[in-house]
Amino acid sequence: MSKGIEIKQMGMEHFDESMTLSQFAFQFQKSAEELEQLKEQFGAEPAVRYAVYVNNQFAAQATVLELETYIGGRRFAMGGLAGVATWPEHRRKGLVAKLLVHSLKEMKDKGQTISFLYPFAFGFYRKFGWDTYIEHKAYIIKAEQLPPRIAYTGRIERYSGSYSLLNSIYDAFASRYNGALVRPELWWKYRISERKQGQTAVYYANNGEPLGYIIYEVKNKLLSVHELVYLNEETRGALWSFISQHDSMIAEVKITVPADDLLPYLLPDPRIKQEVIPYFMARIVDAEAFVAQYAFVAASEEDHIQIMLSDEHAPWNNGFYTLQIDADGMGKLRRLDATERVDTCIKLDIGAFTTLLLGYLRPLQLSQLARIQGDVAAIKRLQMRIPERTTYLADFF
């Protein structure tokens, strides 16, 4: 650590100075009551919070939330980087870089094989190995463009009970996507209840099974859908019919959906306003441990693909490997010595490696963008062993 610069873990005793910096950096103001609620959350949520002190002065901070994410239907321990902030007099001194590198080492030691963050600037975090892993589609639909109401066999009921019912539906939905959060009870208590206020309605099948829900609010003739979750096509149609029931009291519906959503195709007038929005970034923290958990596509025989992986800020990932994928789809990165290396290896950095394994872009697409270099046949073999799944994240931190 540089002279006069020290990184410390923050505890409850640091809450006030941490919140003072956060309110300044992110330009918000909380009441005394709201600060008490945030203090409770600060102490309850599983997280590690770091502060940088320069000559004993509080200069910068970052939080790593202890979370899990779904990838290929499996749960991965994930470090959610949040609240990165620096006082202006200490900016451009490399303090955030030190925090990021320190956080990566700590995440690796804790078994968090991947990390997500919401960037203030994509280019800044790309330098440290994070890369885009998700984009949303945002729709604005005029009332007269809403889907026609349809008949359905189940029922929709307004809901005000505990989050456990909603979480059971959400969990089945989220596990279909790469990069969706596993939501613990505290996440619903502190995050969902705060950010997604309004009305909740649940769709029940004819046999009483809950198969979907909507969280939304109506204000100033705008219906804002905070969350639309469904487990089959009938449920999707029923929930959109429910939205259309509000047509007499609204002018527009605003909703953010996964990148693979096909609603416009089903509309009588598909010329709705659509916007594609890059959202979160991801980076693999520990390549060998991540690959060991990852579910590749099963095949009739094993694959052995040599790769050269570069990672400037997590040097334990740097090196030449054979990516071994067995017939059942289990993978392993085996580090190679100099005598085993071949010229046909695939060369890529940790950001591209993350992007392709999460499924945001395919290996051949990254090759076209010169983010992967090497033997085209090997790149095609790699692509065949990576499952096609949409990335999606319905949360923010």
UniProtKB/TrEMBL annotation:
It comes from the Bacteria. Keywords: Transferase. GO terms for biological process: aminoglycoside antibiotic catabolic process. Residues 5-153 form the N-acetyltransferase domain. SUPFAM superfamilies: Acyl-CoA N-acyltransferases (Nat), SCP-like. This is Putative acetyltransferase. GO terms for molecular function: aminoglycoside N-acetyltransferase activity.
